[in-house]
Amino acid sequence: YIIQQTTKQAIPQLFHLYREVAEKSGGIIRRAEEISMDYIENFISHSLESGLTFMAIDTQTDEVLGEIHAY
Q1: For the whole model, what pTM was predicted?
Q2: Which residues pair with 64 in a beta bridge?
Q3: For residue 50, what pLDDT is reported?
Q4: What pLDDT was estimated at residue 29?
Q5: Each residue of 4-38: pLDDT tens digit?
Q6: How far apart are CA 18 and CA 43, in angstroms?
Q7: 11 in Cβ contact with 41 (< 8 Å)
Q8: How far apart are CA 59 and CA 20, in angstroms?
Q9: Rounded mean pLDDT of the chain?
Q10: What gap in Å lies between CA 32 and CA 71, rounded to an integer?
Q11: Contacts 24+ apart (CB under 8 A), 30-38
């Protein structure tokens, strides 16, 4: 895998990743129904504008494995 700065083009993949993780008990603090494209777009936009955001990408499949952000 590689670590790279998150891009807005990754938002659809992040949406699916966050929904998948939210459906698992103890995955993240949000419930699956709270995860929307707007939710993802909001924190990615804020992070790109005034913070930081990185994602781990599987180099063989281009799948987003994880993401971290702060703003």
Answers
A1: 0.89
A2: 57
A3: 97
A4: 82
A5: 999 999 999 999 999 999 998 777 788 899 999 99
A6: 12
A7: yes
A8: 20
A9: 94
A10: 23
A11: 37/11, 37/12
Instruction: Return the residue matching tokens 């993401």.
Output: 67
Instruction: For CA atoms 8, 38, 63, 47, give the dihedral sign.
Output: positive
Annotate 3-53 with three-state secondary structure. EEECCHHHHHHHHHHHHHHHCCCCCCCCCHHHCCHHHHHHHHHHHHHHCEE
pLDDT for the residue 57: 97
d(CA 68, CA 4): 11
Bridge partners of 66, per DSSP, are 56
